[in-house]
From TrEMBL:
Residues 310-454 form the Peptidase M1 membrane alanine aminopeptidase domain. Belongs to the peptidase M1 family. It comes from Kitasatospora gansuensis. Residues 1-23 form the signal peptide. It holds the Pfam family Peptidase_M1. PANTHER family: AMINOPEPTIDASE N, PROTEASE M1 ZINC METALLOPROTEASE. The keyword NADP does not apply. One of its GO terms (biological process) is proteolysis. This is Aminopeptidase N. It catalyses: Release of an N-terminal amino acid, Xaa-|-Yaa- from a peptide, amide or arylamide. Xaa is preferably Ala, but may be most amino acids including Pro (slow action). When a terminal hydrophobic residue is followed by a prolyl residue, the two may be released as an intact Xaa-Pro dipeptide. It is an enzyme of class 3 (hydrolase).
Length: 471
């Protein structure tokens, strides 16, 4: 489900001219979606509606193998197109016919169907593959995290190439069925609902289903020895939590945090509007790096996050992303403020709810604790660059921008915007420009200058523009 296409008309024309038979065979799909931060991520010429991943994983060897069946529709006539993928491919079929393929670049799979595809045609692409994800690197790193009892795919913006072929850009969202075969006694976790599980011949199959459109970086896979729990929130949302059996001293704090997932989701619904997905949850594998990721409806948390006791604030952050980032997704990575600024602001609202300081107090504290010469003020939350996408300025200065909007429009309009935006673009994509227009329409206040100051201008904004000063 994407809006843009990146086939150049000139390229298409050139191909038509050089085609010896004289018949229209279509253009070559672009190897990137044209994102300014990550030009090679995503591809051109088609739109994916569904990924069906049928996989087998052996924790002892980190061997992953299986078949991805991708349902797509072309947005241009295509003689060739790309998927983003880093593992080894054995075979590709397009619409039932064997296709030629080649691995190119850092993570590109180039596919030439037996017959060219027409514009607006449905394409069923079947990719059979295998590999040891932890040994495969692209751009000098590996996004697959090996654990003592398995492996985990959870990373932003990269993680998909290490476990399934995709159109890896948030502008092309799709539904997912993920079916994983693992040895008995081991669990497999992915997004959405655990539809069924069954064992035979010493292997257990887990069938996970995500029925709402999901960006590829929000798809997750974890295999390991987990304890899986299910419950239902007061608001009626099924909750799935999972804990590695090997969390050591962090086990209690992890559980004390994630077991509040249902309660926090219900509370967030009062702030951000109805929860957009069919299930909610979180899992804690025994990984090392200390971050969390808002993997859709099944959040990834590293155990380190719980190293000092319970941390409901991070749970609030990742669950707020279900509205801001997952249901309403970025159209381009430079707009990361739409995700992180609002997820951080939700933490400030939670602090207020928990009587640990109001959002205004936290905004004033961030503002006053960062001196004017702090490099913090040089990163622009509205265009931080790929190297600073997750810089504290995107989060904290980003949340200051949200507080500035609140003070400019007043609480009534502010909370109408906070709740209305996820409804306005539910399951879709949007830009900061779209947000400005929406917030101006709902509040009746011009916000261009304010956003220019807080998102796009380097340096510490003068006290007169500080969020402390009510407009
Ligand atoms: N969206 C994530 C969060 O704020 C950011 C994770 C970034 N870390 C990473 N290793 N990719 O929770
Ligand atoms: Zn975040």
């Amino acid at each position: 489900m994407r809006k843009r296409l990146t086939i150049s008309a000139a390229l298409a024309a050139a191909l038509l001219l050089t085609n010896p038979a004289g018949a229209a065979t279509g253009a070559v799909g672009a190897s990137g979606a044209g994102d300014a931060y990550y030009p090679q991520y995503g591809n051109g010429g088609y739109d994916v509606s569904h990924y069906d991943l049928r996989l087998k994983y052996q924790p002892a060897t980190d061997q992953l193998e299986g078949t991805a069946t991708i349902l797509a529709t072309t947005t241009a006539a295509l003689s060739r197109f790309n998927l983003d993928f880093a593992l080894t491919v054995q075979e590709v079929h397009v619409n039932g016919r064997k296709a030629r393929f080649a691995a190119t670049g850092e993570h590109e799979l180039e596919i030439t169907p037996a017959a060219p595809l027409g514009k607006g045609e449905r394409a069923t692409v079947v990719v059979r593959y295998s590999g040891v994800p932890s040994t495969v690197s692209a751009y000098g790193f590996t996004a697959w995290q090996r654990t003592p009892d398995g492996g985990v795919a959870a990373g932003e913006p990269e993680s998909a190439w290490w476990w399934f072929p995709s159109n890896d850009h948030p502008s092309d969202k799709a539904t997912f069925d993920v079916s994983v075969l693992v040895p008995d006694g081991t669990q497999a976790i992915s997004n959405g609902a655990l539809v069924s599980q069954s064992s035979r011949l010493g292997w257990t199959r887990y069938n996970w289903r995500q029925t709402k459109p999901q960006a590829t970086y929000l798809a997750t896979l974890a295999v390991g020895r987990f304890e899986l729990n299910t419950s239902v929130s007061d608001g009626g949302i099924p909750v799935i939590t999972a804990y590695s059996r090997d969390l050591g001293d962090n086990a209690g704090a992890a559980r004390a945090s994630l077991e509040r997932t249902g309660e926090i989701t219900d509370w967030l619904s009062t702030q951000l509007g109805p929860y957009p997905f069919a299930t909610v949850g979180g899992y804690v594998p025994n990984t090392k790096p200390g971050y969390a990721l808002e993997t859709q409806s099944q959040v990834y948390y590293s155990p380190r996050i719980f190293g000092a006791g319970s941390n409901t604030s991070v749970v609030v952050h990742e669950l707020a992303h279900q509205w801001y980032g997952d249901s309403v997704s970025l159209d381009r990575w430079s707009d990361i403020w739409l995700n992180e600024g609002f997820a951080r602001y939700a933490q400030w609202l939670w602090s207020e709810h928990e009587n640990e300081g109001t959002a205004q107090e936290l905004a004033d504290w961030v503002y006053s604790s960062r001196p004017a010469d702090d490099p913090f003020w040089t990163v622009l939350p509205g265009d931080p660059g790929p190297d600073n996408q997750f810089h504290p300025a995107v989060y904290d200065r980003g949340a200051l921008a949200v507080q500035a909007i609140r003070n400019a429009v007043g609480d009534e309009a502010f909370f109408a915007v906070l709740r209305g935006w996820p409804a306005e673009h539910k399951y879709g994509n949007a830009t900061v420009e779209d947000f400005r227009r929406y917030a101006e329409r709902v509040s009746g206040k011009p916000l261009g200058d304010l956003l220019h100051t807080w998102l796009y201008t380097g340096g510490k904004p003068a006290a007169g523009t500080s969020p402390s000063l009510k407009a």
